[in-house]
Write a structure and sequence with these properties.
The protein is about 50% helix and about 10% strand. It is α/β, with parallel strands linked by helices. Helix 21 (about 450-460) packs across helix 22.
Length: about 650
């Protein structure tokens, strides 16, 4: 009996010692030590309770277990990968995913595997690899649209964060183009629009600014710009009227699917719906025959380019062109329908006087191609879509004052209506800028034959110092130095080219010569100019062919596509006018007060000519360029080249 008790006691001791075997190095027990079934149960509990650190530890332990069936092996690797991603352990997560796909090859086609793989690449900051994978995934024709959208929304934040806007545009544009049916595009917009709504205004603007250059904006740039305006409106950065103007422009550049989404947005913002069938009827008053016909047809080349680009946006544009050189032009103008309330032109003073005298300006809004609306009142009887004499003078004076420190001027002017008006405008702008006119002299253009005598008088050359021989040269010695640094010549360039060399005859080779805008065209038509006389000539202009403005680029493209040659100021004028009318006329009442407010609020427009703006009274101001003659061409003025 005792023998049996001792044996039983020894057996209990052996069992106790077996239970005290120390764990394997690293603190993990082998599956055999822990029991595979118990591990599976504990790992599942940790997974269900979202205890991902514990779950990753248990599932990584189970990777070493033997005797598992295929279903269990797949589950273990799937959850090991999922837990590792949740814990930010992306290197092992990638390894678990590859093991999962090795056991179950079809797993790579499931969203569960694809999403974990992309999140892993995202965590590893392998942007190029992630983008390449997403592109291949979304390009698959067999992949459902909802899967493509999930993929897109997963990587869009990374592209925005890294400012990879071109990649963003390309990915979204491809997705949109490949799904052209209405339901698919609606699904795309319902997914992407909320995503962009949640982005900061700064990133939306940067992404929109990086949109590729194209004649008409497309998806996703329209969506980016739309949400940028929404942000500004929500932050009260722009008022209701300004927001609607921008919304309308974007709306009418959009396809039907975008328009439906945009109208839904407007409803949510408490704004009125925009009709999708916009029709625009505008008129142009141009001389198409006679001495000014070349200008009229040049304007029409720009008009045609703008009209074609607007039609490409799906906006119906009706254009009525009236030849003001024909006797029936007033009758044609009177016969225009009421919906045609925006009129461009006229160009000739006599035509505008007839319009004003007959009261035709009261029923429509005229944007004239004239520097002045006299005898009408600018902002009341019509508007200016053309540089004024004041615009020209201001551009010159600002350049000289701000960049060259010039404050004293002389004026030489012909005693003609044009000469007096240009000189008066220059005088007033000098006075407004704090400058001073220290010499002013008029001359009779018809009777003037001796410009040398005129310049001698202007420079106060003593009579005894005047040269007897025509080629003797007039030294500056013995006479006072001019107390002005620049001279404004308010005559045509044909006269100015006779006047300017006379200053050099009297050794005044450091004076700056200023001319009105027409010089910019006239000076380039003269082939035998001595550039030494004109290197200190400054001319204001409203057209610069190398202007980096997107509108200049699109105008050049438009004219090139129709073999119309290179653009100039007149074609730019027509191009800008039609696009300006399109922006201005969208749901715009012809009520005078509303129109003036619309003009005053007119912003964010890409001009091909020098930009125009209007004050609260409807008076225009054009910020003109200033050019100087370099060799035989006009280039933007540079103070360093004028010393």
């Amino acid at each position: 009996m005792l023998k049996h008790l001792l044996c039983l006691f020894a057996w209990v001791i052996l069992l106790f010692l077996a239970g005290c075997v120390p764990p394997q190095p690293g603190g993990r027990l082998s599956p055999e030590q822990q029991g595979t079934d118990a591990l599976l149960k504990n790992a599942d509990a940790a997974w269900q309770n979202e205890e991902y650190s514990r779950a990753e530890e248990l599932y990584s332990t189970l990777l070493e277990a033997s005797g598992l069936n295929r279903k269990q092996k797949v589950l273990i690797r799937k959850r090991a990968a999922g837990s590792a991603v949740e814990n930010g352990h992306y290197r092992p997560a990638e390894e678990y995913l590859e093991q999962w796909r090795a056991i179950q090859p079809e797993a790579g086609n499931t969203w569960e595997w694809q999403a974990l793989f992309m999140e892993t690449l995202l965590g590893l900051r392998q942007t190029d690899r992630l983008l390449d994978y997403a592109r291949r995934l979304t390009a698959r024709p067999d992949l459902p649209l909802d899967r493509k959208l999930k993929t897109t929304l997963l990587i869009c934040p990374l592209l925005l964060e890294n400012k990879r806007f071109q990649d963003l545009h390309g990915l979204l544009q491809t997705l949109y183009q490949e799904h052209a049916d209405r339901d698919s595009r609606r699904q795309i917009l319902r997914s992407l629009n909320p995503f962009f709504q949640n982005q900061e205004l700064k990133i939306l603007r940067e992404a929109a600014k990086a949109c590729p250059e194209e004649p008409s904006p497309s998806f996703p740039c329209l969506l980016l710009r739309w949400n940028a305006v929404k942000k500004r409106f929500g932050q009260k950065d722009i008022d209701r009227f300004q927001a609607l103007q921008r919304f309308r422009t974007l709306f009418h550049a959009s396809d039907r699917a975008l328009q439906a989404e945009f109208n839904r947005d407007l409803k949510n913002m408490g704004l009125e719906r925009i009709p999708s069938d916009l029709k625009l009827h505008i008129a142009l008053l141009l001389p198409l025959t006679g001495s000014y016909a070349e200008i009229g047809w040049d304007i029409l080349t720009g008009v045609d380019a703008a009209q074609w680009q607007i039609l490409q946006k799906g906006i119906e544009l009706q254009l009525s062109v009236i030849n003001t050189a024909q006797a029936t032009w007033e009758e044609e103008l009177s016969s225009l329908p009421e919906d045609c309330f925006l009129v461009g032109g006229p160009l000739r003073e006599a035509v505008w006087k007839n319009i004003h005298a007959s009261g035709l300006h009261k029923d429509r809004s005229f944007f004239t191609f004239r520097s002045s609306l006299a005898p009408g009142r600018e902002g009341l009887d019509g508007y200016r879509f053309f540089p004024s004499r004041t615009d020209q003078a201001r551009a010159l004076i600002q350049f000289l004052t701000q960049k060259m420190g010039v404050y004293r001027y002389g004026i030489l002017y012909p005693k003609s209506s044009y000469g007096r008006k240009m000189s008066q405008a220059f005088f007033q702008e000098v006075d407004a800028s704090g400058g001073e006119i220290t010499a002013m002299q008029g001359y009779s253009a018809a009777a003037q034959s001796d410009y040398r005598g005129l310049i001698a008088e202007f420079l106060r050359v003593p009579q005894q110092r005047l040269p007897v021989q025509a080629d003797a040269g007039g030294s500056a010695a013995g006479r006072p130095k001019p107390d002005f640094r620049a001279v404004f010549l308010s005559d045509g360039f044909s006269v100015a080219r006779r006047i300017i060399p006379e200053f050099f005859f009297f050794d005044e080779y450091r004076l700056i010569f200023l001319g009105p805008t027409p010089w910019s065209q006239q000076i380039q038509n003269v082939s035998d100019l001595d550039p030494n006389y004109y290197k200190l000539v400054l001319i204001p202009g409203a057209w610069w062919s190398e202007n980096p403005s997107p509108a200049v680029h699109r105008l050049k493209q438009g004219l090139a596509s129709s073999a119309q040659g290179e653009p100039d100021f007149w074609s730019a004028l027509g191009y800008d006018l039609v696009r300006f009318f399109q922006r201005l006329s969208v749901n715009q009442s012809q009520n005078q007060g509303n129109l003036q407010k619309a003009l005053n609020d007119f912003k964010d427009f890409s001009w091909s000519m020098a930009p125009l703006e209007w004050d609260e009274n409807g008076k225009a101001r054009q910020e003109m360029f200033v050019f100087q003659m370099i060799n035989t061409t006009l280039q933007p003025a540079d103070p360093s080249r004028m010393k």
